[in-house]
Amino acid sequence: MTSLLSAPDRSLVTAADLRHRRPLLLVAALGGVAAAGVLLTICLALGVTGWFLADAGSHGQPRDALRIGAMAWLLAHGSGVVVGGVSVTAVPLLLTMAAAWLVWRVGHSVGDSVSGHGPDADQISDGERDWTVPTATVALAAGYLSVTGLTLVLAGTPQTDPSAPRALAWALLLTLLVGGPAIAVGSGRAAIWAALVPPHLRAAAATCAAILRGFLLAALVALLAALVLDLGTAANVVSGLGLSGGETSVYAGVSTLLLPNATIFAGSYLLGPGFAVGAQTLVSPTVVVTGPLPAFPLLAALPDSGPTPGWAVWLVALPALVAAVAAGRAQRRRPTLRWDRGALRGCAGGVAAGIVLGLLASIAGGAVGPGRMQVVGPAATDVLVHAVTAFGIGGLVGGLVMTWWQRRARR
What we know:
The chain has about 400 residues and is mainly alpha-helical. Helices cover about 65% and strands about 5% of the residues.
């Protein structure tokens, strides 16, 4: 009877196997070129579109608009640029996030395409070395760096002076820290390696991600609330510039690119250290000292200079509260009845989230204009100390409370 059963189609099996055994170096290198080229093409298209919206193409040449789009792409990779003799080093983090997302998606596809290379899961478990992911990551980085270098050569001028070392370093870190894990996930290696990681470390990493997501969401809500309360001021700023409809659209688009930066600024405010909007200025829950500000809509969310209301001081308790709630929710998905593990997960996850936020604060600011506007952003060291303390204590409390609740429910 078994002889009557149809055998699997060998052609289909072979095709499926070949789909996962494509040329590793070629696929990964082309993936790096594609990951960089897609966003670069979008930036070039937006540059030309903004040029037409601003003045219907009556000033300048199309190549100038293309150069502006390429400079925006380089700024997203930390290159900095000189505009009218003034250094601008602030990174538009929304573009950087888009670049990271593209690297992740392309890296995941590359990992799936080369997953048939190297030893299988049993051989890896037996200790056989597997160079598939490192080799593909290096090739992906080479493709991405080639596009970055070509853009620096074609778009950079002595007047704009983008920093090649910074742009190449950012591109390398992006492909290593985002593209490498994406290739590992797409190729299935990450699942094999994750089985070797102790469960409490994976739980701490999940807690870190939950705390970071929760706090950044709270900071974004605070920013939008402040902006809505002073929406009239933002409208007056835009109307005072006398922009046309197309120019207003371009201006709104530029403001949107800096929304993640402003969210990190708001998080620094909630933590207590605050941030600067120019040399010798400070915006914090305890004191607000500002000077003349440029006409930029997002700055309408700033509180008035002078003494702060009494309730503003209590905002510094929000980060610890958010960390406690996020740690508790993360532990609900990975329950434990041991007090030490609950405390370790919450505290370690909170400390790790504080370190990540400190790193984000270090890249969120920079120079945005001449004179005093060369100093804009939070003090990364102060943010790091306050975030580690608040998130660590909040995560510890949240982990212990959830452990108590799970022990109680178990009884």
